[in-house]
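User: I'm writing a tutorial on reading structure tokens. Could you give me a worked example: one chain, its sequence, then its tokens, then a sentence or two explaining what the tokens reveal?
Assistant: Sure. Here is the example chain.
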Amino acid sequence: MSHAKTSHSDLGILVEGLVAFLRNRHKEKTPSAPHPVPDQLARVFATFADHLVALILVARSDDKVVDEEREVILRYCVEHARKRGFELTLEEKAALDHYLRRFKPSMPQMIAAMEAVERLKHGTKDEVAELIGGARAVIEADGVVRLQEALYLDELQHNLHSL
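And here are its predicted structure tokens:
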């Protein structure tokens, strides 16, 4: 992936499209109270809760999160942490796996995640590509890929490469 200077306006347009995609994927029926974040996950949530919530929204786009999607999100988080300079401990991995089994983002968490994803328009192509790649892995995890999702993520990826 290129680290070349990218027009922030072009990247901004692409990121706004990603945010719109995430908003459209989530069908919140009733606002839910956030599940408290276990102490073992404080470092995880402080570092990349935005990516975690965004990927959960993608996974929940069909109103259910299957084991394969949770496993993809867990692997993404482990790799994302590694790229940010820290390894998740075995306790953090176990706590995150358990948390993902019951995690349903609350409205404030969704809003915070959308705001964080929107800030990527000031980031790098690599950061945006990483999140798009994570979203693609989630939608492909259970072997059932909805055409609309795949086409939209393909278009985002194509547009990102052409920036």
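What the tokens reveal: The chain has a mean pLDDT of 80. The longest helix spans residues 8-25.
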